[in-house]
């Protein structure tokens, strides 16, 4: 029955497979590329195929959908209170909705950024804060979808390789479902706040003496040899859940999509998912256009940026990733081809950010009263660079996607404000700007006069 509702198509060779033919590594056996979920009755891919593969069209009524999704916000049902499953009409991936595993994820805020807007000259600047999800990152939106599929299909164990956020989300949702979870993380290369979550939620957590990409290689062999369901972003059902922040953004802007959406670039599935959603919304008549989707990587983990500069994204060479923004410390991103397609389809760009630029941008976002993890801050760096290059006009509307909560990596924030984060050569180009934003603790005696003098001094700054 579900084959009639959705199917899996290879993003490389376009081969369509039956749902039960999906291999353990979730890759196409013909070309090795990733699959994506499509809906034969109305999907963008099916529309492009209609000349050679006629399909009976059954497009939903966009006005009715907008009304239905708004009404569900007042429902007391768990699936309606989820910001993912509230939009389940656009992700019919389960045969039985009773298999939904939810922690009331989604429905995250869209904040205005008045200080950053004034500093950059952009008139309408927003932050979509996915760090306000139950486990503190955007991964929850994809995890509720993919883990619900695993639950429906009877798996006992789920697994992921992770730089932190994926492991936290997977462990939480597996615990909620009464399932077991296996986490492989690179030793010494994960923020402790994220590792603590995986431990607290009961995951079997293995620190491997390798980097993230090495963890992925080990996990590929594990899922081949054991009945374990892979929940990394190569999983096409993760992408379906991660579409929903795009729907929320459109809804929060009264179905007027922004001119630009800027997304951090790690394993590159998030940009793929959001681009897919905006293209689907336009195809279905929910919106009348799509935003430009641009991706920003850390300079020390920038294989997509290098690829776009060298050959327009036709080929990608893996790099040894080095960045303190641990969530995007990935040198061989699995979804790079999908990301290139989204950038090209929407007219976006790919940029990079230095360590100092990331640290400063994180502090600038924090000064708005909105904390985010370091990886999220690359979006503000990207905005500055796209403005300088004339690729974004100040009169246009821009949404920065913040992927994780500030408490995901509190050590980074403390080191920044103490002056211990950056090496001298990293700090030098932005020293004046960074010094202005630092707010280290002031050590005083337990004396009100000293506190008052500190208060007076701060008032003069």
Automatic annotation (TrEMBL):
<protein>
    <recommendedName>
        <fullName>Threonine synthase</fullName>
        <ecNumber>4.2.3.1</ecNumber>
    </recommendedName>
</protein>
<dbReference type="InterPro" id="IPR001926">
    <property type="entry name" value="TrpB-like_PALP"/>
</dbReference>
<keyword id="KW-0663">Pyridoxal phosphate</keyword>
<dbReference type="InterPro" id="IPR050214">
    <property type="entry name" value="Cys_Synth/Cystath_Beta-Synth"/>
</dbReference>
<dbReference type="GO" id="GO:0004795">
    <property type="term" value="F:threonine synthase activity"/>
</dbReference>
<dbReference type="GO" id="GO:0009088">
    <property type="term" value="P:threonine biosynthetic process"/>
</dbReference>
<keyword id="KW-0456">Lyase</keyword>
<feature type="modified residue" description="N6-(pyridoxal phosphate)lysine">
    <location>
        <position position="139"/>
    </location>
</feature>
<dbReference type="InterPro" id="IPR036052">
    <property type="entry name" value="TrpB-like_PALP_sf"/>
</dbReference>
<feature type="domain" description="Rhodanese">
    <location>
        <begin position="160"/>
        <end position="201"/>
    </location>
</feature>
<comment type="similarity">
    <text>Belongs to the threonine synthase family.</text>
</comment>
<dbReference type="Pfam" id="PF00291">
    <property type="entry name" value="PALP"/>
</dbReference>
<dbReference type="InterPro" id="IPR004450">
    <property type="entry name" value="Thr_synthase-like"/>
</dbReference>
<dbReference type="InterPro" id="IPR001763">
    <property type="entry name" value="Rhodanese-like_dom"/>
</dbReference>
